[in-house]
C-alpha cells in the first residue's frame, strides 16, 4: 500500500511518461493483463489510456487490473490510469520511493 508522499512522488514521475496501453470496446483481456504485468516489471510505472468507446467503468477497470497484476493504483485522472509495481528484478529497479 502506498503512502500519500509516495503517491505524490509517483504522480510527479508519471507526468513525463506517455500511456503505453489502450483499453477500448473489447475491455481487458488476459493477453493485455500479461502485457501490463511485463511492462510493470520492466518500467515499474506505467500509464493506461481508456478510450471513449470503452463501456466499462474506469474505476472498475483500474481495480480489476490492480487485482490481476498485484500492482498499486497511483491515480485515475480523466481517462488515464497510472499504476506502480516495484520490479522483482533488482536490475530493473529505477524508482526509489520516499519512506
TrEMBL record:
<dbReference type="InterPro" id="IPR001890">
    <property type="entry name" value="RNA-binding_CRM"/>
</dbReference>
<dbReference type="InterPro" id="IPR017924">
    <property type="entry name" value="RNA-binding_YhbY"/>
</dbReference>
<keyword id="KW-0694">RNA-binding</keyword>
<protein>
    <submittedName>
        <fullName>RNA-binding protein, YhbY family</fullName>
    </submittedName>
</protein>
<feature type="domain" description="CRM">
    <location>
        <begin position="1"/>
        <end position="96"/>
    </location>
</feature>
<dbReference type="InterPro" id="IPR035920">
    <property type="entry name" value="YhbY-like_sf"/>
</dbReference>
<dbReference type="Pfam" id="PF01985">
    <property type="entry name" value="CRS1_YhbY"/>
</dbReference>
<dbReference type="InterPro" id="IPR051925">
    <property type="entry name" value="RNA-binding_domain"/>
</dbReference>
